[in-house]
Specification:
about 400 residues, Rossmann fold, 11 helices, elongated
Length: about 400
């Protein structure tokens, strides 16, 4: 029971995080088909229905089928609801036709003929757009293109649900989120919706309060409504925030300690060299000339150097899904597939090993600076890796 509850909580967390990406969007930007009429229903459909497949996993060998019904009220403003029917293995069509969707089968049917349909007067689509997804793979019309892809677990379903929802932004922007083509209106609209949805979150650790100073680059990741003074750790916002996290406290102490003359003397800091120590100096006259480390990593790994790539699973600055995408681009073969790794009797994250002596690990509950929030787990991870032991 505990295991099932953990998996359900995982799915709930993935769902809630994923809605941040597309909850403000009134239209799926996917490879879809618009359905204007259905056999068994008289006349054109009085609501907007789209269906389609979304490929997920590394090779898109899992094809998830969905029904998307746009709100019949105000789709631009109304919320978006994701519906996954349980089982596991039950099709979301069950909810579409029997529970909350816009259609019901007529109670009285002519025996042997095609079932006929009526409008559902109690459809939830009157106040919300609903995305019905056949999940896990094998449920409803969702399928795997290989026998391996047709198999799944609770955790894989979590990942696939998250990836499915990401596709809205990914398809319209074609993977380019920083230098968006001004003529790509769907991408600009989706990115604006995404930005509005994550506004107020701490991108370094989404469960921590948004305090500005916790961000690695406050001037880029926070809006003009906030101003940060790193010296005094002051945050000016419209409403006060509970910025009492341990990391904020540690940043303040660092500033006080390293700017003390006695400390500088003990550390043999040259007088007059640095007037004031600050944690992150973003005013450096520094020009970035290497924009892609891909070739350098490949070169080192082919020479036999091992590598540990890790990401906290609660950070948005460099999210672990982005790290996974980078790893997929290396096209290394998988040596040992996904499994949990443990510390002190608890799951500390998930790991996978690849050829060329590369290990990838997620740190459960870790943010952008994973060892800061999960020091025990990250220390154990490093100790095992450096000793050539499995995580």
């Amino acid at each position: 029971m505990a295991s099932k509850m953990a998996h359900l909580l995982c799915l709930l967390l993935i769902f809630m995080l994923s809605l941040l990406i597309i909850a403000c969007s009134s239209k799926l930007v996917l490879g879809h088909s618009v359905v204007e009429s259905l056999p068994g229903f008289e006349g054109p459909l009085p609501f907007e229905l789209e269906t389609g497949y979304v490929g997920v996993d590394e090779s898109e060998d899992v094809q998830l089928f969905y029904y998307f019904v746009k709100s019949e009220s105000n789709p631009k403003e109304d919320p978006l609801l994701l519906w996954l029917t349980g089982g596991p293995g039950c099709s979301a069509f069950s909810a579409f036709i029997n529970e909350i969707g816009p259609l019901n089968f007529k109670v009285k049917q002519n025996g042997g003929s095609l079932p006929t349909l009526d409008l559902n007067p109690n459809s939830w689509t009157k106040v919300a757009s609903i995305l019905f997804v056949d999940l896990p793979v094998g449920a409803g019309f969702s399928y795997g293109t290989t026998s391996l892809a047709s198999k799944s677990t609770d955790l894989q379903s979590c990942d696939q649900a998250y990836e499915f929802l990401k596709k809205s932004l990914q398809r319209s922007c074609q993977g380019e989120y920083f230098n968006i083509d001004p003529s790509n209106t769907p991408c600009l609209q989706d990115y604006q919706a995404y930005s509005q949805c994550i506004d107020g979150l701490n991108p370094s650790q989404i469960l921590e309060p948004s305090c500005g100073i916790a961000s690695p680059k406050p001037q880029e990741l926070f809006s003009d409504r906030r101003s940060v003074n790193e010296k005094n750790i002051e945050l000016v916002v419209h409403q006060p925030l509970p910025c009492d996290s341990s990391s904020i406290h540690a940043y303040k102490l660092s500033h006080l300690w390293l700017n003390d003359d006695r400390v500088r003397e003990a550390l043999h800091i040259r007088k007059g060299s640095i007037r004031e120590w600050i944690r992150c100096n973003y005013g450096l006259p520094y020009a970035q000339s290497i924009w892609d480390s891909f070739q350098y990593h490949v070169n080192l790994s082919t020479k036999g150097y091992k590598s540990l790539i890790y990401s906290g699973d609660h950070g948005m600055v460099v999210p672990f899904l982005g790290t996974q995408a980078w790893i997929r681009a290396l096209n290394y073969s998988i040596v040992s597939d996904w499994r949990s790794w443990w510390v002190q009797g608890q799951v500390a994250g998930y790991t996978r090993t690849y050829s060329n002596r590369m290990t990838f690990a997620t740190v459960k509950g870790g943010g952008h600076v994973a060892p800061e929030s999960k020091p025990v787990e990250c220390c154990a991870m490093f100790e095992r890796w450096i000793a050539n032991q499995p995580l």
